[in-house]
Write a structure and sequence with these properties.
This protein is α+β, with helices and mostly antiparallel strands. The chain contains six helices and 18 strands. An eight-stranded antiparallel sheet has the order 11-17-16-15-14-13-12-18, with helices on one face. The protein has a four-stranded antiparallel sheet with strand order 5-6-7-8, with no helix packed on it. A three-stranded antiparallel sheet has the order 1-10-9, with no helix packed on it. Strand 16 and strand 17 form a beta hairpin. The structure holds FE2/S2 (inorganic) cluster and fe (ii) ion.
Length: 341
């Protein structure tokens, strides 16, 4: 079972980075809802991407001053969707009934979050910052935006899945020939689920060899509805922290906005960022490829028909959160298992 896009609408999701909203309107589809983002008086605004006059896409228009102007007849709307100008009508006219639909929007730490649930629905509390290294001077942190052609759950599962790197990223992240027995502690509460892999070894993939010394634990976390986190910890604390916020655009496309942190060392941040971009760009392309092919094959059969083992640690919990959307209905859970990693 995958969550319907409509059921996810009453949640905050990341639409883009703040830096992506420039002088031109930025179209996005969030949970099947086409929206347009633009800047008005320096602040980011979001409207449903449909002009109320003849339904042209506002995103194909332009931003003039603090207004977004429709490309068809030039109606212009402010950040709240109020129509401020209808060319040809006397300037003094008010146009309260010609409003475009506003979308709730919030800018936090370089990311733009939107709420495409019905406007009358009360927004949930703004999601807490799950990336603990944001603003922590002991870490270099940067943002990364990507897309993948897959369903939300398959994308989240891919990020948190410990058993695919041996094949999908063979040599780069892990090696299939060199497995070790590892204990795994899984713990779930109303906020999310985490799996702690007790690795206690020097990783043998090329990337972790370059970046880390001895790895004590690798931790995968999921916070519903769409945040996944990886943390690799050495004797001195976190060596690598990745928090990815997944946003479904439609049933087959997800936006992935990631915060990536590594401990501050000798290398300047810009150099580290370009090395990490090159290295993780390769891993990301491999994951994008495997996810797209998985989705294409699922579609060839008209739907998914999965089978799992205890190695698929996260999937049952991802499904649990879908089936228990209310925090009050969720129960705590903990278990341990061993696997060859
Ligand atoms: S369709 Fe937008 S102004 Fe006419
Ligand atoms: Fe991967």
């Amino acid at each position: 079972m995958t969550p319907s896009l409509a059921s996810l609408r009453p949640h905050w999701f990341v639409a883009c980075t703040a830096a992506a909203v420039g002088a031109r309107p930025l179209p996005r589809t969030i949970l099947g809802v086409p929206i347009v983002l633009f800047r008005a008086a320096g602040k980011i605004a979001a409207l449903i991407d449909r002009c109320p006059h003849r339904n042209a896409a506002l995103s194909q228009g332009r931003v003039t001053g603090d207004l977004i102007e429709c490309p068809y007849h030039g109606w212009a709307f402010d950040a709240g969707g109020v129509c401020r100008r209808i060319p040809g009508l006397p300037a003094a006219c008010e146009h309260p009934h010609q409003a475009a639909e506003a979308v709730r929007v919030a800018e936090r730490e370089g990311l733009v979050w939107v709420w495409v649930g019905k406007n009358e629905a009360t927004p949930e509390a703004f999601p807490p910052n799950r990336h603990v290294a944001l603003g922590d001077l002991r870490f270099d942190t940067f943002l990364w935006a990507a897309t993948a052609q897959c369903a939300l759950l398959d994308g989240v599962e891919n990020l948190l899945d410990a058993c695919h790197p041996h094949f999908a990223h063979a040599g780069l992240v892990r090696r299939a020939q060199k497995r070790r027995t590892v204990g795994v502690n899984v713990r779930r509460d109303a906020e999310g689920v985490e799996a702690i892999y007790q690795e206690n070894a020097r990783p043998d993939g090329l990337i972790p060899r370059l970046m880390e010394g001895r790895r004590q634990t690798s931790i995968g976390r999921f916070f519903p509805p769409g945040t996944a986190q990886l943390e690799y910890t050495g004797p001195a604390g976190p060596q690598f922290l990745l928090t990815s916020m997944f946003t479904p655009c439609d049933e087959r496309t997800v936006l992935i906005h990631s915060c990536i942190s590594t401990p501050r060392k000798m290398a300047p941040a810009w150099l580290k960022k370009s090395v990490l971009r090159a290295v993780f760009g390769r891993v990301l392309r491999q994951d994008q490829d495997v996810l797209r092919r998985q989705q294409e094959n699922i579609d060839r059969f008209g739907g998914a028909k999965f089978t799992s083992t205890p190695l698929d640690v996260m999937r049952p919990h991802l499904l649990y959160f879908i089936n228990h959307p209310e925090k009050a209905d969720r129960s705590d859970y903990a278990t341990t298992l061993t696997m060859e990693l």
